[in-house]
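Bit of a strange request maybe. I'm writing a small parser for C-alpha coordinate strings and I need a real example to test against, not something I typed by hand. Could someone generate the C-alpha coordinates for this chain?
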Amino acid sequence: MDSLNFLLDGFQTALQFHNILFAFFGVLIGTMVGVLPGIGPVSGVALLIPITATLTSGMSPSEAATSSIILLAGVYYGALYGGSTTSILLNTPGEASSVVTTLDGYQMAKQGRAGAALSIAAIGSFVAGIISLIGLVFLAQPLSKLALQFGPAEYFSLMLLGLCAVSGLAGKSITKALLMTVLGLMLGTIGIDAVSGSARFTFGIPELYEGIEFLTVAVGLFALGEVFKTILEKDYVSGTITKINRILPTKQDMKDSAVPILRGSILGFLIGILPGAGASIASFFSYSTEKKISKQPEKFGKGAIEGVAAPESANNAASGGAMIPMLTMGIPGSSTTAVLMGALIMYSVQPGPLLFEQHPDVAWGLIASMFIGNVMLLILNMPLIKVFAKVIETPAKYLLPFIIAISVFGVYAVRLTTFDLMLLLLCGLAGFFFTRHDYPVAPLVLGLVLGPMIEYNLRRALTISNGDWLIFLEKPLSALFLAIAAAWVLVPVILKRKGKNVLVDEG
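Reply from user aminoacidic:
Good idea to test on real output. This should exercise your parser:
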Protein backbone atom coordinates (compact mmCIF):
# COMPACT_ATOMS: atom_id res chain seq x y z
CA MET A 1 0.00 0.00 0.00
CA ASP A 2 2.95 2.29 0.67
CA SER A 3 3.84 2.19 -3.01
CA LEU A 4 0.29 3.14 -4.05
CA ASN A 5 0.24 6.05 -1.58
CA PHE A 6 3.59 7.26 -2.89
CA LEU A 7 2.29 6.86 -6.45
CA LEU A 8 -0.74 9.03 -5.63
CA ASP A 9 1.64 11.68 -4.26
CA GLY A 10 3.61 11.30 -7.49
CA PHE A 11 0.46 12.00 -9.52
CA GLN A 12 -0.01 15.25 -7.58
CA THR A 13 3.43 16.29 -8.81
CA ALA A 14 2.99 14.96 -12.35
CA LEU A 15 -0.44 16.57 -12.79
CA GLN A 16 0.84 20.08 -12.10
CA PHE A 17 0.22 22.11 -15.25
CA HIS A 18 3.86 22.76 -16.11
CA ASN A 19 4.77 19.08 -15.58
CA ILE A 20 1.92 18.00 -17.90
CA LEU A 21 3.41 20.33 -20.53
CA PHE A 22 6.90 18.89 -19.95
CA ALA A 23 5.53 15.34 -20.35
CA PHE A 24 3.58 16.31 -23.48
CA PHE A 25 6.52 17.97 -25.23
CA GLY A 26 8.79 15.13 -24.08
CA VAL A 27 6.70 12.41 -25.72
CA LEU A 28 5.99 14.58 -28.80
CA ILE A 29 9.68 15.33 -29.38
CA GLY A 30 10.53 11.72 -28.51
CA THR A 31 8.14 10.41 -31.16
CA MET A 32 9.69 12.69 -33.78
CA VAL A 33 13.20 11.65 -32.64
CA GLY A 34 12.17 8.00 -33.04
CA VAL A 35 10.65 8.66 -36.46
CA LEU A 36 13.79 10.36 -37.79
CA PRO A 37 16.26 7.61 -38.69
CA GLY A 38 19.73 7.99 -37.18
CA ILE A 39 19.03 10.25 -34.20
CA GLY A 40 17.80 7.69 -31.65
CA PRO A 41 16.66 8.11 -28.04
CA VAL A 42 20.12 8.54 -26.51
CA SER A 43 21.07 11.42 -28.87
CA GLY A 44 17.63 13.00 -28.40
CA VAL A 45 17.89 12.88 -24.60
CA ALA A 46 21.48 14.22 -24.61
CA LEU A 47 20.49 17.10 -26.93
CA LEU A 48 17.58 18.16 -24.75
CA ILE A 49 19.45 18.24 -21.40
CA PRO A 50 20.74 21.82 -21.89
CA ILE A 51 17.32 22.96 -23.15
CA THR A 52 15.56 21.58 -20.08
CA ALA A 53 18.23 23.22 -17.89
CA THR A 54 17.30 26.58 -19.45
CA LEU A 55 13.55 25.98 -19.21
CA THR A 56 13.75 25.05 -15.51
CA SER A 57 16.25 27.76 -14.52
CA GLY A 58 13.74 29.69 -12.35
CA MET A 59 12.55 26.68 -10.33
CA SER A 60 13.85 25.23 -7.05
CA PRO A 61 16.50 22.47 -7.53
CA SER A 62 14.03 19.68 -6.68
CA GLU A 63 11.27 21.04 -8.97
CA ALA A 64 13.79 21.61 -11.77
CA ALA A 65 15.09 18.04 -11.48
CA THR A 66 11.54 16.63 -11.50
CA SER A 67 10.37 18.62 -14.53
CA SER A 68 13.58 17.94 -16.47
CA ILE A 69 13.56 14.20 -15.88
CA ILE A 70 9.84 14.05 -16.80
CA LEU A 71 10.63 15.64 -20.19
CA LEU A 72 13.79 13.62 -20.80
CA ALA A 73 12.15 10.31 -19.87
CA GLY A 74 9.27 11.26 -22.21
CA VAL A 75 11.78 11.61 -25.03
CA TYR A 76 13.20 8.18 -24.14
CA TYR A 77 10.00 6.12 -24.27
CA GLY A 78 8.45 8.38 -26.94
CA ALA A 79 11.37 7.59 -29.25
CA LEU A 80 10.73 3.88 -28.77
CA TYR A 81 7.11 4.49 -29.86
CA GLY A 82 8.19 6.44 -32.92
CA GLY A 83 10.94 4.05 -33.97
CA SER A 84 8.43 1.68 -35.54
CA THR A 85 7.13 4.25 -38.07
CA THR A 86 10.13 4.22 -40.41
CA SER A 87 10.58 0.47 -39.91
CA ILE A 88 7.07 -0.13 -41.24
CA LEU A 89 6.79 2.61 -43.89
CA LEU A 90 10.34 2.80 -45.20
CA ASN A 91 11.97 -0.51 -44.18
CA THR A 92 14.52 1.64 -42.29
CA PRO A 93 14.48 1.36 -38.49
CA GLY A 94 14.31 4.68 -36.62
CA GLU A 95 16.48 3.19 -33.87
CA ALA A 96 18.19 -0.13 -33.14
CA SER A 97 15.36 -1.73 -31.16
CA SER A 98 13.01 -1.38 -34.17
CA VAL A 99 15.20 -3.42 -36.52
CA VAL A 100 13.12 -6.57 -35.97
CA THR A 101 9.91 -4.66 -36.74
CA THR A 102 11.04 -4.18 -40.34
CA LEU A 103 10.78 -7.94 -40.98
CA ASP A 104 7.00 -8.10 -40.87
CA GLY A 105 6.03 -4.42 -40.58
CA TYR A 106 7.32 -3.47 -44.03
CA GLN A 107 5.78 -6.58 -45.57
CA MET A 108 2.41 -5.57 -44.08
CA ALA A 109 2.88 -2.07 -45.53
CA LYS A 110 3.57 -3.51 -49.00
CA GLN A 111 0.33 -5.47 -48.68
CA GLY A 112 -1.58 -2.21 -48.01
CA ARG A 113 -1.82 -2.82 -44.25
CA ALA A 114 0.57 -0.09 -43.06
CA GLY A 115 -2.13 1.57 -40.93
CA ALA A 116 -2.93 -1.68 -39.11
CA ALA A 117 0.77 -2.35 -38.45
CA LEU A 118 1.34 1.18 -37.10
CA SER A 119 -1.75 1.14 -34.90
CA ILE A 120 -0.94 -2.31 -33.47
CA ALA A 121 2.59 -1.06 -32.76
CA ALA A 122 1.08 1.93 -30.91
CA ILE A 123 -1.43 -0.20 -28.95
CA GLY A 124 1.25 -2.78 -28.10
CA SER A 125 3.62 -0.02 -26.97
CA PHE A 126 0.89 1.47 -24.78
CA VAL A 127 -0.02 -1.84 -23.10
CA ALA A 128 3.65 -2.71 -22.61
CA GLY A 129 4.37 0.72 -21.16
CA ILE A 130 1.57 0.38 -18.60
CA ILE A 131 2.54 -3.21 -17.64
CA SER A 132 6.19 -2.26 -17.15
CA LEU A 133 5.18 0.76 -15.06
CA ILE A 134 3.04 -1.43 -12.77
CA GLY A 135 6.10 -3.66 -12.32
CA LEU A 136 8.22 -0.57 -11.63
CA VAL A 137 5.76 0.69 -8.97
CA PHE A 138 5.76 -2.58 -7.03
CA LEU A 139 9.46 -3.42 -7.38
CA ALA A 140 11.03 0.01 -6.91
CA GLN A 141 10.35 0.41 -3.19
CA PRO A 142 11.40 -3.13 -2.05
CA LEU A 143 14.55 -3.02 -4.19
CA SER A 144 15.58 0.41 -2.89
CA LYS A 145 15.05 -0.85 0.71
CA LEU A 146 17.23 -3.86 -0.07
CA ALA A 147 19.89 -1.61 -1.58
CA LEU A 148 19.93 0.44 1.64
CA GLN A 149 21.54 -2.56 3.35
CA PHE A 150 24.53 -2.31 0.99
CA GLY A 151 27.88 -1.09 2.27
CA PRO A 152 30.67 0.48 0.18
CA ALA A 153 32.05 -2.96 -0.80
CA GLU A 154 28.66 -4.09 -2.14
CA TYR A 155 28.22 -0.80 -3.99
CA PHE A 156 31.64 -0.99 -5.58
CA SER A 157 31.02 -4.57 -6.77
CA LEU A 158 27.50 -3.71 -8.00
CA MET A 159 28.77 -0.76 -10.05
CA LEU A 160 31.53 -2.94 -11.46
CA LEU A 161 28.80 -5.43 -12.42
CA GLY A 162 26.90 -2.60 -14.17
CA LEU A 163 30.01 -1.67 -16.18
CA CYS A 164 30.73 -5.30 -17.10
CA ALA A 165 27.08 -5.89 -18.06
CA VAL A 166 26.99 -2.99 -20.51
CA SER A 167 30.50 -3.76 -21.82
CA GLY A 168 29.74 -7.46 -22.20
CA LEU A 169 26.78 -6.89 -24.49
CA ALA A 170 27.64 -3.61 -26.25
CA GLY A 171 29.03 -3.76 -29.76
CA LYS A 172 30.47 -6.73 -31.61
CA SER A 173 33.85 -6.83 -29.84
CA ILE A 174 34.13 -7.21 -26.07
CA THR A 175 37.75 -6.00 -26.23
CA LYS A 176 36.65 -2.72 -27.84
CA ALA A 177 33.80 -2.35 -25.32
CA LEU A 178 36.18 -2.88 -22.39
CA LEU A 179 38.65 -0.38 -23.89
CA MET A 180 35.85 2.20 -24.10
CA THR A 181 34.87 1.47 -20.48
CA VAL A 182 38.44 2.06 -19.30
CA LEU A 183 38.60 5.28 -21.35
CA GLY A 184 35.38 6.48 -19.66
CA LEU A 185 36.78 5.64 -16.20
CA MET A 186 40.00 7.52 -17.02
CA LEU A 187 38.06 10.59 -18.16
CA GLY A 188 36.15 10.41 -14.86
CA THR A 189 39.42 10.86 -12.90
CA ILE A 190 40.19 14.25 -14.49
CA GLY A 191 39.85 17.21 -12.10
CA ILE A 192 40.52 18.02 -8.46
CA ASP A 193 40.66 14.92 -6.25
CA ALA A 194 37.95 15.33 -3.58
CA VAL A 195 40.05 13.58 -0.90
CA SER A 196 43.61 14.80 -1.39
CA GLY A 197 42.76 18.09 -3.12
CA SER A 198 45.44 17.52 -5.77
CA ALA A 199 44.82 18.20 -9.46
CA ARG A 200 44.73 15.06 -11.63
CA PHE A 201 45.39 15.10 -15.41
CA THR A 202 44.48 18.79 -15.66
CA PHE A 203 47.76 19.85 -17.35
CA GLY A 204 47.40 23.34 -15.89
CA ILE A 205 44.15 23.99 -17.77
CA PRO A 206 41.78 25.78 -15.31
CA GLU A 207 38.62 24.51 -17.11
CA LEU A 208 39.62 20.93 -16.26
CA TYR A 209 39.80 21.52 -12.48
CA GLU A 210 36.07 20.80 -12.16
CA GLY A 211 36.41 17.68 -14.31
CA ILE A 212 35.04 17.01 -17.77
CA GLU A 213 31.44 18.11 -18.17
CA PHE A 214 29.33 14.99 -18.71
CA LEU A 215 26.87 16.82 -20.96
CA THR A 216 29.60 17.94 -23.38
CA VAL A 217 30.84 14.40 -23.81
CA ALA A 218 27.33 12.92 -24.21
CA VAL A 219 26.15 15.53 -26.76
CA GLY A 220 29.45 15.34 -28.67
CA LEU A 221 29.65 11.55 -28.86
CA PHE A 222 26.00 10.83 -29.58
CA ALA A 223 24.47 13.85 -31.34
CA LEU A 224 27.39 15.59 -33.08
CA GLY A 225 29.03 12.24 -33.86
CA GLU A 226 25.85 11.18 -35.65
CA VAL A 227 25.80 14.47 -37.61
CA PHE A 228 29.40 13.94 -38.77
CA LYS A 229 28.56 10.35 -39.74
CA THR A 230 25.55 11.48 -41.78
CA ILE A 231 27.55 14.21 -43.57
CA LEU A 232 30.79 12.34 -44.19
CA GLU A 233 29.22 9.02 -45.13
CA LYS A 234 26.25 10.65 -46.95
CA ASP A 235 23.98 8.45 -44.83
CA TYR A 236 20.73 10.11 -45.89
CA VAL A 237 17.35 8.42 -45.83
CA SER A 238 16.04 7.49 -49.23
CA GLY A 239 13.30 5.29 -50.56
CA THR A 240 9.60 5.37 -51.18
CA ILE A 241 7.31 5.82 -48.20
CA THR A 242 4.38 3.45 -48.28
CA LYS A 243 0.94 5.08 -48.30
CA ILE A 244 -1.34 4.67 -45.29
CA ASN A 245 -4.97 3.83 -45.99
CA ARG A 246 -7.05 2.35 -43.15
CA ILE A 247 -5.56 3.23 -39.73
CA LEU A 248 -7.60 1.15 -37.30
CA PRO A 249 -6.82 -2.58 -37.06
CA THR A 250 -9.55 -5.16 -37.73
CA LYS A 251 -11.06 -7.39 -35.01
CA GLN A 252 -8.96 -10.29 -36.33
CA ASP A 253 -5.80 -8.16 -36.08
CA MET A 254 -6.63 -7.34 -32.45
CA LYS A 255 -7.35 -11.02 -31.69
CA ASP A 256 -4.09 -12.18 -33.29
CA SER A 257 -2.07 -9.51 -31.49
CA ALA A 258 -3.50 -9.64 -27.96
CA VAL A 259 -1.47 -12.57 -26.59
CA PRO A 260 1.82 -11.63 -28.38
CA ILE A 261 1.48 -8.12 -26.89
CA LEU A 262 1.10 -9.54 -23.36
CA ARG A 263 3.96 -12.02 -23.86
CA GLY A 264 6.20 -9.33 -25.38
CA SER A 265 5.43 -6.93 -22.53
CA ILE A 266 6.35 -9.38 -19.76
CA LEU A 267 9.44 -10.68 -21.58
CA GLY A 268 10.60 -7.13 -22.43
CA PHE A 269 10.14 -5.95 -18.86
CA LEU A 270 12.16 -8.84 -17.42
CA ILE A 271 14.96 -8.35 -19.97
CA GLY A 272 14.91 -4.58 -19.41
CA ILE A 273 15.67 -5.04 -15.69
CA LEU A 274 18.98 -6.72 -16.55
CA PRO A 275 21.75 -4.14 -16.84
CA GLY A 276 23.15 -4.02 -20.34
CA ALA A 277 20.43 -6.10 -22.01
CA GLY A 278 18.45 -3.18 -23.47
CA ALA A 279 15.46 -2.80 -25.77
CA SER A 280 17.17 -4.26 -28.86
CA ILE A 281 17.74 -7.65 -27.25
CA ALA A 282 14.23 -7.59 -25.75
CA SER A 283 12.63 -7.06 -29.18
CA PHE A 284 14.78 -9.75 -30.81
CA PHE A 285 14.01 -12.30 -28.07
CA SER A 286 10.32 -11.52 -28.22
CA TYR A 287 10.20 -11.94 -32.01
CA SER A 288 12.07 -15.25 -31.97
CA THR A 289 9.88 -16.52 -29.11
CA GLU A 290 6.69 -15.72 -31.05
CA LYS A 291 8.04 -17.43 -34.15
CA LYS A 292 9.02 -20.56 -32.20
CA ILE A 293 5.67 -21.03 -30.47
CA SER A 294 3.53 -20.02 -33.46
CA LYS A 295 1.44 -22.68 -35.17
CA GLN A 296 2.29 -21.02 -38.48
CA PRO A 297 5.96 -19.97 -38.19
CA GLU A 298 6.23 -19.82 -42.00
CA LYS A 299 4.14 -16.63 -42.13
CA PHE A 300 6.77 -14.68 -40.12
CA GLY A 301 8.75 -12.42 -42.42
CA LYS A 302 5.82 -12.26 -44.83
CA GLY A 303 3.61 -9.77 -42.98
CA ALA A 304 2.54 -11.52 -39.73
CA ILE A 305 0.97 -8.99 -37.38
CA GLU A 306 2.35 -10.95 -34.40
CA GLY A 307 5.82 -10.09 -35.76
CA VAL A 308 5.04 -6.41 -35.21
CA ALA A 309 3.01 -6.66 -31.99
CA ALA A 310 5.49 -8.70 -29.93
CA PRO A 311 8.80 -6.87 -30.58
CA GLU A 312 7.21 -3.40 -30.39
CA SER A 313 5.66 -4.33 -27.02
CA ALA A 314 8.94 -5.80 -25.79
CA ASN A 315 11.12 -2.79 -26.61
CA ASN A 316 8.75 -0.41 -24.82
CA ALA A 317 8.42 -2.69 -21.79
CA ALA A 318 12.22 -2.86 -21.63
CA SER A 319 12.38 0.94 -21.27
CA GLY A 320 10.28 0.73 -18.08
CA GLY A 321 12.31 -2.22 -16.81
CA ALA A 322 15.60 -0.36 -17.45
CA MET A 323 14.43 2.39 -15.08
CA ILE A 324 14.46 -0.04 -12.11
CA PRO A 325 18.24 -0.57 -11.70
CA MET A 326 18.83 3.12 -12.48
CA LEU A 327 16.35 4.52 -9.94
CA THR A 328 16.73 1.95 -7.14
CA MET A 329 20.44 1.15 -7.23
CA GLY A 330 21.99 3.94 -9.27
CA ILE A 331 23.12 1.48 -11.95
CA PRO A 332 22.02 2.51 -15.45
CA GLY A 333 20.92 -0.49 -17.51
CA SER A 334 21.44 1.11 -20.95
CA SER A 335 23.17 4.04 -22.65
CA THR A 336 19.99 6.15 -22.52
CA THR A 337 19.44 5.54 -18.80
CA ALA A 338 23.15 6.40 -18.29
CA VAL A 339 22.48 9.80 -19.91
CA LEU A 340 19.29 10.20 -17.83
CA MET A 341 21.28 9.39 -14.71
CA GLY A 342 23.92 11.95 -15.68
CA ALA A 343 21.14 14.53 -16.07
CA LEU A 344 19.84 13.81 -12.55
CA ILE A 345 23.36 14.09 -11.11
CA MET A 346 23.67 17.51 -12.82
CA TYR A 347 20.73 18.60 -10.63
CA SER A 348 22.47 17.19 -7.51
CA VAL A 349 19.96 14.34 -7.37
CA GLN A 350 21.77 11.03 -6.88
CA PRO A 351 19.87 8.01 -8.29
CA GLY A 352 20.01 5.00 -5.97
CA PRO A 353 18.30 3.65 -2.84
CA LEU A 354 18.30 7.05 -1.11
CA LEU A 355 16.49 8.64 -4.07
CA PHE A 356 13.11 7.37 -2.85
CA GLU A 357 13.78 8.70 0.68
CA GLN A 358 15.51 11.99 -0.08
CA HIS A 359 13.70 12.94 -3.31
CA PRO A 360 10.35 11.08 -3.35
CA ASP A 361 8.82 13.90 -5.42
CA VAL A 362 11.39 13.33 -8.18
CA ALA A 363 11.18 9.50 -8.16
CA TRP A 364 7.40 9.10 -7.84
CA GLY A 365 6.66 12.20 -9.94
CA LEU A 366 8.67 10.59 -12.76
CA ILE A 367 6.90 7.23 -12.45
CA ALA A 368 3.44 8.89 -12.37
CA SER A 369 4.34 11.08 -15.36
CA MET A 370 5.22 7.97 -17.35
CA PHE A 371 1.64 6.70 -16.88
CA ILE A 372 0.36 10.05 -18.18
CA GLY A 373 2.93 10.10 -20.99
CA ASN A 374 1.92 6.65 -22.23
CA VAL A 375 -1.73 7.72 -22.47
CA MET A 376 -0.62 10.88 -24.35
CA LEU A 377 1.41 8.76 -26.76
CA LEU A 378 -1.54 6.52 -27.57
CA ILE A 379 -3.79 9.55 -28.17
CA LEU A 380 -1.10 11.25 -30.28
CA ASN A 381 0.00 8.25 -32.29
CA MET A 382 -3.33 6.83 -33.40
CA PRO A 383 -4.87 9.88 -35.12
CA LEU A 384 -1.55 11.54 -36.05
CA ILE A 385 0.13 8.56 -37.68
CA LYS A 386 -0.03 10.23 -41.11
CA VAL A 387 1.45 13.46 -39.71
CA PHE A 388 4.40 11.67 -38.09
CA ALA A 389 4.93 9.78 -41.36
CA LYS A 390 5.51 13.19 -43.02
CA VAL A 391 8.29 13.95 -40.50
CA ILE A 392 10.36 11.21 -42.17
CA GLU A 393 10.59 13.43 -45.26
CA THR A 394 12.41 16.24 -43.37
CA PRO A 395 15.45 17.02 -45.55
CA ALA A 396 18.87 16.53 -43.96
CA LYS A 397 19.85 20.08 -45.06
CA TYR A 398 17.37 21.47 -42.49
CA LEU A 399 17.71 18.80 -39.80
CA LEU A 400 21.51 18.68 -39.45
CA PRO A 401 22.11 22.45 -38.93
CA PHE A 402 19.30 22.38 -36.36
CA ILE A 403 21.01 19.58 -34.38
CA ILE A 404 24.38 21.37 -34.59
CA ALA A 405 22.84 24.65 -33.36
CA ILE A 406 21.14 22.96 -30.35
CA SER A 407 24.38 21.11 -29.52
CA VAL A 408 26.56 24.25 -29.63
CA PHE A 409 24.19 26.63 -27.82
CA GLY A 410 23.19 23.99 -25.27
CA VAL A 411 26.73 23.06 -24.28
CA TYR A 412 27.89 26.71 -24.22
CA ALA A 413 24.97 27.71 -21.96
CA VAL A 414 26.10 25.35 -19.15
CA ARG A 415 29.46 26.95 -18.27
CA LEU A 416 29.80 29.77 -20.84
CA THR A 417 33.32 28.74 -21.89
CA THR A 418 34.71 28.28 -25.39
CA PHE A 419 36.79 25.43 -23.98
CA ASP A 420 33.61 23.31 -23.76
CA LEU A 421 32.86 24.07 -27.43
CA MET A 422 36.31 22.85 -28.47
CA LEU A 423 35.78 19.76 -26.32
CA LEU A 424 32.36 19.28 -27.95
CA LEU A 425 33.93 19.34 -31.42
CA LEU A 426 36.61 16.89 -30.31
CA CYS A 427 34.00 14.55 -28.80
CA GLY A 428 31.92 14.80 -32.01
CA LEU A 429 34.89 13.73 -34.14
CA ALA A 430 35.71 11.00 -31.62
CA GLY A 431 32.07 9.84 -31.73
CA PHE A 432 32.23 9.58 -35.53
CA PHE A 433 35.54 7.68 -35.37
CA PHE A 434 34.29 5.29 -32.68
CA THR A 435 31.01 4.54 -34.47
CA ARG A 436 32.74 4.03 -37.81
CA HIS A 437 35.19 1.53 -36.32
CA ASP A 438 32.57 -0.23 -34.16
CA TYR A 439 33.78 1.07 -30.80
CA PRO A 440 30.57 1.29 -28.68
CA VAL A 441 30.25 4.69 -27.00
CA ALA A 442 27.72 3.60 -24.33
CA PRO A 443 30.38 1.98 -22.09
CA LEU A 444 32.46 5.19 -22.28
CA VAL A 445 29.55 7.33 -21.07
CA LEU A 446 28.70 4.79 -18.38
CA GLY A 447 32.35 4.75 -17.22
CA LEU A 448 32.37 8.55 -17.05
CA VAL A 449 29.13 8.60 -14.99
CA LEU A 450 29.99 5.73 -12.66
CA GLY A 451 33.77 6.35 -12.41
CA PRO A 452 33.72 8.91 -9.55
CA MET A 453 31.18 6.83 -7.58
CA ILE A 454 33.19 3.63 -8.06
CA GLU A 455 36.33 5.42 -6.84
CA TYR A 456 34.47 6.88 -3.84
CA ASN A 457 33.10 3.49 -2.73
CA LEU A 458 36.43 1.75 -3.38
CA ARG A 459 38.19 4.22 -1.08
CA ARG A 460 35.52 3.87 1.62
CA ALA A 461 35.65 0.08 1.51
CA LEU A 462 39.46 0.02 1.73
CA THR A 463 39.41 2.56 4.58
CA ILE A 464 36.99 0.35 6.55
CA SER A 465 39.14 -2.77 5.94
CA ASN A 466 42.47 -0.98 6.60
CA GLY A 467 43.51 -1.54 3.02
CA ASP A 468 42.57 -5.24 2.87
CA TRP A 469 41.24 -6.03 -0.63
CA LEU A 470 39.70 -9.28 0.63
CA ILE A 471 36.75 -7.22 1.94
CA PHE A 472 35.23 -7.47 -1.55
CA LEU A 473 35.27 -11.29 -1.34
CA GLU A 474 34.40 -11.63 2.35
CA LYS A 475 31.07 -9.82 1.96
CA PRO A 476 28.71 -12.45 0.41
CA LEU A 477 26.72 -10.02 -1.78
CA SER A 478 29.87 -8.27 -2.97
CA ALA A 479 31.44 -11.62 -3.89
CA LEU A 480 28.24 -12.62 -5.71
CA PHE A 481 28.21 -9.38 -7.74
CA LEU A 482 31.88 -9.83 -8.67
CA ALA A 483 31.24 -13.44 -9.74
CA ILE A 484 28.30 -12.36 -11.96
CA ALA A 485 30.41 -9.51 -13.39
CA ALA A 486 33.20 -11.94 -14.31
CA ALA A 487 30.67 -14.36 -15.84
CA TRP A 488 29.05 -11.54 -17.85
CA VAL A 489 32.34 -10.78 -19.57
CA LEU A 490 33.77 -14.30 -19.81
CA VAL A 491 30.70 -16.30 -20.91
CA PRO A 492 30.27 -14.45 -24.27
CA VAL A 493 34.01 -14.89 -24.93
CA ILE A 494 33.76 -18.65 -24.27
CA LEU A 495 30.61 -18.92 -26.41
CA LYS A 496 32.29 -17.07 -29.29
CA ARG A 497 35.32 -19.36 -29.12
CA LYS A 498 32.98 -22.33 -29.37
CA GLY A 499 31.45 -20.79 -32.50
CA LYS A 500 28.12 -19.83 -30.93
CA ASN A 501 26.28 -16.63 -31.81
CA VAL A 502 26.27 -13.95 -29.11
CA LEU A 503 23.54 -11.32 -28.91
CA VAL A 504 24.69 -7.72 -28.69
CA ASP A 505 22.80 -4.51 -27.99
CA GLU A 506 23.79 -1.88 -30.51
CA GLY A 507 21.24 0.64 -29.24
